[in-house]
Amino acid sequence: MSITAILTVYRRPELLKKQVKALESQTRPPDHIWIWQNKSPENHQVKPPQRTILINSGYNFLYHGRFALGLLAQAHSEYVVFFDDDIIPGADWLENCMNCMFTQPGLYVGVGNRLIKKEKEGQKRPWFGWRNPNDKIEEVDYGGHSWFLKSDWLRYFWAEKPVSMKNAEDIQLSFALQKNGIPTYCPPHPKNNTRLWSNIVAWKYGKMAVASHKNPPTGIEVKDWFRERRDIEQKCIQRGWAPMYMRKGENSK
Phi/psi class of residue 118: alpha, beta or left (left: φ > 0; alpha: ψ in -120 to 50)? Predict the structure, then answer.
């Protein structure tokens, strides 16, 4: 059961070696490591670590470019896993995902949340993953930071026209997969075993000034970037996406 891991380089290239080392140290290491480099304002020159493949884009395709690269993974691997550029996984993360996949097939994410019916401004959603540890597999509406799935499933991602090519690739992925009967889950992230976690450095690198949630690459204000994500959620619902509260008669409990 082969795995292709796809990393992203944008404005934090200094983290690449740490990510590759973390992947090579996995109890179930990926068979291939590919690196998608978006064009950045700094025009970083990246030397790919040994046994990795670098695809250097002369254009910033934002969040979606790496998922286009993922389409090629099905020729090499049954599974593909993507990572944001500030994520360092625990040593058992890929094995955790693989074991969960055998138990409950689906998309497995590093952090996941559930939408709330008639959500009010500032209201907190239920979260699972490294930012709010969970002891068992939890179904979520969508998630991010890391995505583990069958490589063949990426065709569903592109079969649905994205609401936006500048934001919300994570929402798009879960929306497209659910329309084809594939749910989204967050694997166990037990408090006492960070080896299973998708990210063992918490917000250490996510707090950097170049992080997307602090400095969106689309040139819009942070508050507008998040507001756009909420708008995309609603547009996906209009196109047939059914959050958990709609399917189970729950208010995301």
Answer: left
